[in-house]
Amino acid sequence: MSLARAVTFAIDGIASRRVLVEVDVRVGLPAFTIVGCGDMSVRESRERIRAALLNSGFEFPARRITANLAPAALRKVGPGFDLAIACALLAAGGQVPVESLERWAIFGELSLGGEVRPCRGTLAVAEGARRAGSTGLLVPRAAAREAALVDGLSIAAVGSLREVVAVLAGEVEPPAPPEAQGEEPGETLDDLDDVRGHLLPIRALVVAAAGGHNLLLAGPPGTGKTMLARRLPSILPPLTHPEAVEVTRIHSVAGLRMGEGLAQRRPLRAPHHTISASGLVGGGSSPTPGEVSMAHHGVLFLDELSEFARTSLEALRQPLEDGRVVVVRSQRTAIYPARFMLVASTNPCPCGHAGSPLCRCMEGDVLRYRRRLSGPLLDRMDLLVHVARPSAAELAGESLTSSADARADVARSRAVQTARFEGTPITCNAQMPSRLLRVHAGLDETGETTLARAYDREHLSARGHHRILRVARTIADLAGAEAIGVKHLIEALQFRQDTGALELAA
Ligand SMILES: Nc1ncnc2c1ncn2[C@@H]1O[C@H](COP(=O)(O)OP(=O)(O)O)[C@@H](O)[C@H]1O
Ligand SMILES: [Mg+2]
């Protein structure tokens, strides 16, 4: 009978690639085959398309139907091809004008009843459509606000297969994406004014947020480590627009959010300690972003660090160094961005009470426990802080700060950093390469001797040495100081007394 084509897009990493859908309908025994390297959900789309067509009042040709998704070398994952295949099939059967499919790229899942549903990765698809030179993109209404984040592409926000056909036939104007309902309310964040005492840990939290530094909270159970870490998002600076677009793109591909507009907040991801290495950094047979990428531009919080499998923690090295993850699968390489602040909490020993008479651990147990921690991660922590039991008076007293006050300090020091790194891809002190440390984190003579003495006394690594300078730079920025003073340096050193947080408790 005839042949029709439609354009859609396949998710590849966190971007998308153009896919041409060809549908051939000819006389023969009734059959419906989809070829072109689709996964299970692509094969199952035959059943959805058949039911959706019939339930929408269209004819499903009793012929031999072949759909091909090209290029065949690209793996196609997910149900987002449904709508494009259905449209090409309708065009091949003469129920939709063939030329109309040249104007629109099409992306969406079908329900059996003929409604269209949002899929993962709509933003990446819309960006791909604009890059590929498509004039318009037809997407489910529930995903349209996400697609509309891309400029220069007209979006048709459709609710059902019938509506899609009406748009293609020119019977109705392409429906515009729904307006955003003002600011998304979002869940309200927990506030630092719930915390009693903890002068030093709160200071460490503020310094970490100000410079984007990694932070380890060590202390006995029930002292508020988890509580503190979870309040970090409430003091972080807002996402810049390009950062928000990146977070939205990644979270959409990962299926964390679908169709809502732009991400409003820096993410905090707190995976359970049973997570596998590939869950943490990404991968799998059809690669998806891992927790480190979902935490991009935000916080990865590893609560009870010592419970995580060693292999999982080892896998964090590459993203911590490079700010991205490279996943190789069947000759294809996916690159997932992964620039995050690492925050971890831990007990100082298996029972958590090391240093107090309550401790019931054997010395060997304590040593083994610390060795598990020290491997891959400890040297990459910028700030180590001991979270001691607050006193009864502190618990009964007032809180030391509110998130709003802390956030204002953080914002002020970030503004200094933004100006400092203007024109570079660096956004905060923690990302400063050693080359720039010489420019921006110079010390005076007293500073140099103080640091040199600490370097020898604490047996610091060169990496640790650089980390102290970055933290000192942030502390000086918080104080509004142009140059790093000795008191800034001493505070930075105090947050890194070797494995201070752990030794303190012993
Ligand atoms: N310093 C503190 N100020 C106020 N409440 C606290 C403090 N420390 C602990 N709490 C209370 O104890 C609960 C448990 O604290 P949590 O953060 O889970 O401890 P940890 O993670 O150190 O074991 C918190 O939810 C909070 O209600
Ligand atoms: Mg806890």
Summarize the SSE layout with pairings:
Blueprint: E1 2-12, E2 15-26, E3 31-35, H1 40-55, E4 64-70, H2 82-92, E5 104-106, E6 109-110, E7 116-117, H3 122-131, E8 136-140, H4 141-147, E9 154-158, H5 161-168, H6 199-211, E10 215-218, H7 225-230, H8 241-253, E11 268-269, H9 277-281, E12 282-283, E13 288-289, H10 291-294, E14 299-302, H11 310-314, H12 317-322, E15 324-329, E16 332-337, E17 341-346, H13 363-374, E18 383-386, H14 392-396, H15 403-420, H16 434-440, H17 445-457, H18 462-478, H19 486-494, H20 500-505
Parallel strand pairs: 3-4, 5-8, 8-9, 10-17, 10-18, 11-14, 14-17
Antiparallel strand pairs: 1-2, 2-4, 6-7, 12-13, 15-16
The structure holds adenosine-5'-diphosphate and magnesium ion (MG).
Magnesium ion (MG) binds at residues 225-226, 303, 345.
The structural class is alpha/beta
CATH superfamily of the largest domain: P-loop containing nucleotide triphosphate hydrolases
Per CATH, which architecture of the largest domain? 3-Layer(aba) Sandwich
Low-confidence regions:
none
- What compounds are bound to the protein? adenosine-5'-diphosphate, magnesium ion
The total number of structural domains is 2
Helix content: 25-40%
Which band does the percent of strand residues land in? 15-25%
Shape estimate: elongated
Strand order of the largest sheet: 11-14-17-10-18
Specify Rg, calculated over alpha carbons. Answer: 27 Å
Regarding CATH, which class of the largest domain? Alpha Beta
The span between the termini is 81 Å
Query: Averaged pLDDT, please?
Result: 91
Most strands sheet? 5 strands, parallel
Stated plainly, the CATH topology of the largest domain is called: Rossmann fold
How many helices? 20
Number of E-state strands? 18
